[in-house]
Amino acid sequence: QVQLVESGGGLVQPGGSLRLSCAASGRTSSWSGMGWFRQAPGKGREFVASIGWSIGFTNYADSVKGRFTISRDNAKNTVFLQMNSLKPEDTAVYYCGAKVGSGPYDYWGQGTQVTVSA
């Protein structure tokens, strides 16, 4: 059974940093990639960043390019999202996802709240 558990969210002031982690368990060897998404109040879930599970190719939403960095530790089945220069508009619940093929994400974590406020 696949399980994704996010951690690292919290309250931070504008301009601050946070590092999110997503620990995966289960059959990860068949995965093609993992990603981070976020959902702000009253809005739909939006893509933030993704990383290939074997090759490590990364992709970012324009809104976070240059501020966020996604990385992975395959030995620990963990994906990270380093978030710097945080803005109030980054406030959202952040979700970790994993997928097997090239289509939609197959597995999701429960989410972790990130609040950027003075």
Structural notes for this entry:
This protein is mainly β and 118 residues long. 0% of the residues lie in helices and 52% in strands. It has strands spanning 3-7, 10-12, 18-25, 33-39, 45-52, 58-60, 68-73, 78-83, 92-99, 107-108, 112-116. The strands form two sheets. Strands 2, 4, 5, 6, 9, 10 and 11 form a seven-stranded mixed beta sheet that branches. A four-stranded antiparallel beta sheet has the order 1-3-8-7, with no helix packed on it. Strand 9 (92-99) and strand 10 (107-108) form a beta hairpin. The radius of gyration is 13 Å and the shape is globular. 31% of the residues are buried. The mean pLDDT is 94.
| Content of β-strand | over 45%
What is the arithmetic mean of pLDDT? 94
Query: Radius of gyration, rounded?
Result: 13 Å
Helix and strand composition category = mainly beta
Number of helices: 0
Say how many strands there are: 11
Give the topology string: H per helix, E per strand.
EEEEEEEEEEE
Distance between the termini: 40 Å
Silhouette: globular
Question: Helix content range of the residues, please?
Answer: under 10%
